[in-house]
Amino acid sequence: MTDEAAGKTRIYCNSCRQETNHEQKGEHKGIFHDEQGFGEVLIYSLWICIGCESGVLQRIYTNDAMDPDCDYEYFPERSQTTLVAKPYSKLKPSLAAIYKEAITCYNTKSLILCAAGLRALLEGICQDKKIKGQSLKAKIDGLKTHLPNKNIIRNLHHFRFMGNDAVHELEAPKSTKVALAIGVIEDLLNFFYELDYKASQLREMRRSKKPKMLKPAKAVSATGTLTSNV
To answer: Higher model confidence: residue 14 or residue 3?
Structure first.
């Protein structure tokens, strides 16, 4: 909500990753009329985050009567729904590239390309794990020997159908379904390419904390020869 008197408002800050107070630094208003006399108003406002001092341009579109039901746009676009690619230490570069491209497609609302990329990533994981099968359905079923959780297999089959619709029917899936599919594929990536890495880290930490066995100290006798204290 904007406090016009104080020139402040709360906007999601991409840098602070949360809603923060912003201070208005400038405004420009343009009023335009068409041939029928209907008017529209475009208001551009520059807002600066009070916390990190990053800026955002707000564009308000409304009519000349200043209808309260106006449309807001922000430049750069606010990132509260933006996904960030997670690092997987053991993931092959070719598979990591597909995963990152799929995340980029999701963030730019290229949902058909995102679904196709996720399906290709699933194919690549099955190939990397040497899962045999003539079709992706058979390969997903082959993952049962590696995955103890049957829900992941069930979700992967649903995800496979979404990829087929996107690629062959050019049907864009809903963003909520794509976000769920990304979550499923990240669970799979975490199981195959991250958990082993974390487990090895824990083993190394435990080894480093084990007390070392001390060797018996040696003393020097009056004659100058070394003698054992044991």
So the answer is: 14
